[in-house]
Specification:
single chain, 4-stranded antiparallel β-sheet, alpha/beta, binds arginine, Gyrase A, domain 2, 21 helices, 4-stranded parallel β-sheet
Length: 593
Amino acid sequence: MKKFLDLISEEMMNAFEAAGYDRKLGKVGLSNRPDLCEYQCNGAMAGAKLYKKAPVMIAKDVAQKCEDSKVFLSVEAVSPGFLNMKVREDFTADYLNQMRKEPKFGLCTPKEPDHIIVDYGGPNVAKPLHVGHLRSAIIGESIKRIARYAGHEVLGDIHLGDWGLQMGLIITELQERQPELVYFDENYKGEYPKDAPFTISELEEIYPAASAKSKEDAEYKDRAMEATFKLQSGVPGYRALWDHIMKVSVADLKKNYENLNVEFELWKGESDVHDLIPGMVDYLKKEGYAYISDGALVVDVKEETDTREIPPCMILKSDGASLYNTTDLATIMDRMKTHHPDRLIYLTDKRQDLYFEQVFRCAKKTKLVEPETELLHIGFGTMNGKDGKPFKTREGGVMRLELLIQEINDEMYRKITDNRQVDEEEARRTAKVVALSAIKYGDLSNQASKDYIFDIDKFTSFEGDTGPYILYTIVRIKSILNRIKEQDGQNENALQDKTYIRCAGSEAEKALMLEIAGFQAAMETAYKETAPHKICAYIYGLANAFNRFYHETKIVTEENPEKKAGWVALLVLTRDILETCIDVLGFSAPERM
Ligand code: ARG
C-alpha cells in the first residue's frame, strides 16, 4: 500500500504538471504550522527561479488545478508562495479502512528479504550483567524486531564473551579453593562429574574475587593466564570446568534476558570460532594482507582520505595470543559461511567506534566479506545517573542489572497500589510489565548515540513522553472497548465486521486519523535509519492525539449506532497500531493498570 504522504505528494505533483510546471516540485511534507494546515508544499518557491515568475503566482496556478481534487479539501496559495493543504475527510477514512484490511497495516515489505544478523547483548560469561549491557540488549532487540517487521530475515546473536582471561581467572580461583577437584588432576582419565562444583551465586562471587587478586598479585595473574592458555589448548579437565561455567552462566543469562523480553536466536560466543583462527591467520598471511610489526601480526587499515589516525588491526600479539579483534574477524568469517548475511549490525558502547572501524575495514580489505556486505556499528551513549555521571548504586558501585530492575519494579508497584485496592498478585505482575516499558522506552526514546540520564521518577511517570503513558493509553482504549462490548453484549469481532471508520466529525478525530495514517512512514524510517526512537516519537504523537480525541468525545454513551460503530473501528485500529509499535520496541501492555 502506498504511504499516505506519498499519495498526497502524487496528487500535488499532478497539479503542478497540469499547471504546466515540473511535477518534481510537488513534493509535500507535514505542516510545521498545524494551526493553519495539515500539509504543505514549498515547490512554488523553488519553481520561481526556474520559471522566472513570482512564487505566489505559481502557487495560485497549482491551487486552481486542485479544485476538484479527491484528496484535498482545501489548497491555499499564501504569500510569498507556500501551498497550505488540508486533506478530505473521506480520503483519510478510506485510507484507514484500507489499512485495517491489509497485513501489517499496509506496510510495504520487500519481495526479496535481506538476511541480517544483529550482534547485541554481548555479556561476558560469569561476570554479572551490569547496566552497560542493558542498552545493548534493549536497542539491539528493538532493531532486530523492527527489521523483522519490515519483512527481513533477521537473527540475533548474543556473542558471548566466553573465551578470555576471565575464564582462566575463575579456574585459578577454583583451584585455590578446591584443589582436590578432579578437574585439576592432569592424569585423570575418567568421566568428569555432571554437576558443577559451584552455584551461580558462588560463581558471581568467584570472578570479582579472582579479578581483584590478579590486580595485586602478579604471580596469581600469571597462573590465570596459564590457565586460560591451557583451556584454549584443550586440556580436558579445564574444558570440563569451562562447560560447567557455561552451563550455569547461560542458564542465569537466559533468565535475565527473559525478564527483559530479549530473545536471541543464536547463543554463539567467542569460543565458537577458536578453531577457525589458525586457518584465518594462514589465509591473511598467504594473501599478503598481514605482516609482522614489532613482533605482532597486523593488517594495515588506514586510508588516504582518513582525517583521524586509524591504527593497524592487530591479529596476533607478539606471544601468538589472539585478541578481541581476532575473534571478531573469525566470527565474521563464520557468519558469512553459515548465514551469508547481507548485513551485520553490531551494538556496543560508542567507545568501541574506532575498534569496529578497524575490524570492518580489515574484513573488507581482506575479503572476509563480499564487497556489498554491509557492516554497521551502532555505538550508543552512556546511561548516566541524575548527577550526569555513569549510573552507579547509591553506594557508588557498579549497578547490577538485576538490582536496577528490582528497584523500578518496586517503584512501579508502589505507584500501582497507591490509593487503590488491587489484588497483590495482579499488582506485582502489572508492575513488572509497566516497569519494563519504563526502562525500555526511557532508553529507546533517545537517539541511541546520545548519552541519557536514567531518571526513575521521570521514566515511571504516567504522564509525558514515557513508556507507562503509552501503556496507559492502550489500557484506556481496551477498557472503553470492554465497556462497549458489555453494554451491547457483543464481542469485538462482531463489532469489527459490521463497522468501518467514518469521516472525522471533529478536529481532534481528524488529527487522530492523520496520525494513524503516518504509521507506514514511521516504521519505514525507523528501519532504514535503524532508529527505534522514531517509533517512540510516532507513538507518543499517536497517544497524544488519541487522548485529546478521548477527552473531547463521549464514546460509550453515543446514541447514534453508526457513529459509535465507526469509533469502535477507529479505537481498534489505534490500539492495534500502538501494540504493534510497542512490540517492536520490545515490551507489551497489560490488560488493566
Ligand atoms: N563482550 C563485549 C563487551 O562486553 C561486547 C561484545 C560485542 N560484540 C562483538 N562482536 N564484539 O564489551
